[in-house]
Amino acid sequence: MEIKTWIFKNIHLLISLSIVVPTAIIYGSPSVLPEHLDIQVNSIDLSNMLRAIMCLYLGISFVWIFGIWKTDYWKIATQLNVLFMLTLATGRALSMIIDGFPTGGYIFGIIAELVLGLFSIYQLKKYAIQ
Questions:
Q1: pTM for the complete prediction?
Q2: What residue intervals traverse the membrane (predicted)?
């Protein structure tokens, strides 16, 4: 596969990785969170939950890496990207309705998740039969 085609086929996964991996690391670093987000980690339970989320994000990222690296995994990686991005966006939208609007980073998050989730559906339709 030529490099241009490879990039276009995997761009949604590459973008997702470039956003999700740093986010995972920030979520798993309680001392860094106040610098980037309006979150104060003041209990072991919250720290535990955030590290679990970090590992979940990293685990999902590994599936995306496999999908980029091994074409046999591309479809499942893209389907997981759709599920991951659109369920996060749904959760954020629900929170906005129930809890109110968050800080700008989370507003960017819902927009990016919607765009990546919908773009991944497009990618599935375009490349899944190849």
A1: 0.90
A2: 12-29, 49-68, 80-98, 104-124
- Tens of pLDDT, residues 1-22: 799 999 999 999 999 999 999 9
Q: What percent of the chain has pLDDT over 90?
A: 82
| 8 Å CB contact between 66 and 17 | no
3-state secondary structure the chain: CCHHHHHHHHHHHHHHHHHHHHHHHHHCCCCCHHHHCCCCCCCHHHHHHHHHHHHHHHHHHHHHHHHHHCHHHHHHHHHHHHHHHHHHHHHHHHHHHHHCCCCHHHHHHHHHHHHHHHHHHHHHHHHCCC
Q: Where are the domains of the chain?
A: 3-127
